[in-house]
From TrEMBL:
Name listed for the protein in its UniProt record: Aldehyde dehydrogenase family protein
Organism: Streptomyces gilvifuscus
Keyword terms of this UniProt record: Oxidoreductase
Domain Aldehyde dehydrogenase: 16-482
High-level lineage: Bacteria, Bacillati, Actinomycetota, Actinomycetes, Kitasatosporales
PANTHER family: ALDEHYDE DEHYDROGENASE-RELATED
Keyword Oxidoreductase recorded: yes
Pfam families associated with the record: Aldedh
Superkingdom as given in the UniProt entry: Bacteria
InterPro entries per record: Ald_DH/histidinol_DH, Ald_DH_C, Ald_DH_N, Aldehyde_DH_dom
SUPFAM superfamilies: ALDH-like
Length: 486
């Protein structure tokens, strides 16, 4: 059985295993009711999961890429067959609106399995090199191949804001490359990841190739990262935790892929289409209730458009319905927990003390249940305020004025983060010129949309490495050179 009467089981070495640490409640952020009971793994069970992945790595890595791809394709089919209950669970665990749970959580997760069910070449010919005679041998022509090989056992440590798309974006390319995985989901919403494991089991993934261990204790994640059986850690979460993981990885030369915090700058120039800018920036208020690292939370508005932009963003925020995410007209659901609601609210109060003007939101919505935060706009900010420098991870946007292009770029880059920035301008040449000047892993030009084949990752404290599309196959692979005489 995958689930016992009193809670979810762990998935270790192809077996659904009772957790040594018992179970803890997973709470619906909208109703504050218990969704289910998640398992608390012990260190020994984490070690067993890592050992199982190590044992399974050899056979799985030697499996034909077509066979690995077929497993991923069948898993996508299982997810499609259970789409409605999976989306209902994701909504209950995260507080996402129905549209977000269906399209952006389960829908994107399923799409990522389908994407990596496509086999891509893993070898590239290198142009021949003519060598002169010397200490290394006679003159000759040397041929070479670059071969992408799997890393080994990958620890996938995932974030709470999307329990489908984020784990799938790690698991699917890692498996496609021939790696095995140990998944440690976020403690707030791990049940969806166990459904993903069920889908992979039903798709025929061999024993030990996929393992899932969860827990509220930091010891669970620490045990995964520290395991001698783990060759690589793929982590999505805060920069502070990423630093600690990086220190551990450095001691044993584990490979790392880190998607960390963000404080995305949106530069809005005087000639921008304000409707487009407001709609794009406004997604910060609604999408995952602002709990997304790619959000344009720091708006830099050129002075000629500053007042109009603040007014229109405030109107946009005030019109958004906050409430029960299961209601079809709700746009802004709750944040993940009471503790996180308190954290976001404390930043709004801090902004007031720092001199920011609250022009929309700023008060807790009047609901008896649910961890709701009103979409909040802070104007007249400066770039040295903590609300402008630190990741709030909620539906809060700050607005800062600037005069010219150079000042706008300087303000945007005056940040510890560099994940995704945005530029709105009617002058396309300027928009692309500014984009190239920004120290960010990605830049949206007149859009907050994404191309899912484009490399994704950050500069500075926003992370290490790139994934998405073919870049994820590189991220979960090592490149080997094979050289021979022509």
């Amino acid at each position: 059985m995958r689930e016992a009467a009193d809670g979810q089981r762990l998935f270790v070495g192809g077996e659904w295993t009772e957790p040594d640490g018992g179970h803890y409640a997973v709470v619906d952020p909208a109703t504050e009711e218990t969704v289910g009971w998640a398992p608390e793994a012990s260190r020994d069970q984490v070690r067993a999961a890592c050992a199982a992945a190590r044992e399974a790595f050899g056979p799985w890595s030697r499996t034909a890429p077509e066979e690995r791809a077929a497993v991923l394709g069948r898993a996508a089919g299982v997810i499609a067959a259970h789409f409605a209950p999976y989306a209902e669970l994701a909504q209950a665990e995260t507080g996402a609106t129905t549209g977000t749970a269906r399209a952006m959580q389960v829908g994107v997760g399923m799409a990522r399995f389908r994407r990596y069910a496509r086999v891509e070449p893993a070898e590239w010919a290198i142009p021949p090199q003519i060598n002169e005679a010397g200490p290394m041998g006679r003159a000759g022509v040397m041929g070479a191949l670059a071969v992408r090989q799997p890393v080994g056992v990958v620890a996938c440590i995932t974030s709470y804001n999307n329990p489908w798309a984020n784990p799938a974006g790690k698991i699917a390319p890692a498996l496609a490359m021939g790696n095995t995985v140990v998944v440690k989901p976020a403690p707030q919403d791990p049940l969806s990841v166990y459904r993903m494991a069920e889908a992979l089991e039903a798709a025929g993934v061999p024993r030990g190739v996929v393992n899932v261990v969860s827990g509220r204790s930091v010891e669970v994640g620490e045990a995964v990262v520290e395991s001698a059986d783990v060759d690589m850690v793929s982590f999505t979460g805060s920069t502070a935790v990423g630093r600690r993981i990086g220190e551990v990885c450095g001691r044993s030369m584990k490979r790392q892929l880190m998607e960390l915090g963000g404080k995305g700058a949106a530069l809005v120039f005087d000639d921008a289409d304000l409707g487009s800018a407001v709609a794009g920036i406004g997604t910060t208020f609604s999408f995952y209730s602002g709990q997304i690292c790619t959000a344009p939370t720091r708006v830099l508005a050129q002075r000629g458009v500053y007042d109009r932009l603040v007014e229109r963003l405030a109107d946009y925020a005030r019109r958004l319905k906050v409430g029960d995410p299961r209601e079809p007209d709700t746009v802004v659901g709750p944040v993940i927990s009471a503790a996180h609601r308190d954290r976001v609210e404390s930043y709004v109060e801090l902004g007031r003390k720092e001199g920011a003007v609250v022009v929309a939101g700023g008060e807790r919505p009047p609901y008896e249940r649910g961890f709701h935060v009103a979409p909040t706009l802070l104007a007249d900010c400066t770039n040295d305020m903590r609300v402008a420098r630190e990741e709030i991870f909620g539906p809060v946007v700050v607005v800062i004025p600037f005069d010219d292009e150079d000042e706008g770029v300087a303000l945007a880059d005056d940040s510890d983060y560099g994940l995704i920035d945005y530029v709105w301008s009617g002058d396309v040449a300027r928009a692309f010129r500014v984009a190239r000047r920004l120290r960010a892993g990605g830049v949206g030009v007149n859009t907050v949309g994404r191309n899912m084949e484009a490399p994704f990752g950050g500069f500075k404290d926003s992370g290490v490495g790139r994934d998405c599309g073919s870049y994820a196959l590189h991220a979960y692979g090592e490149v080997q050179s094979i050289v021979w005489p022509g």
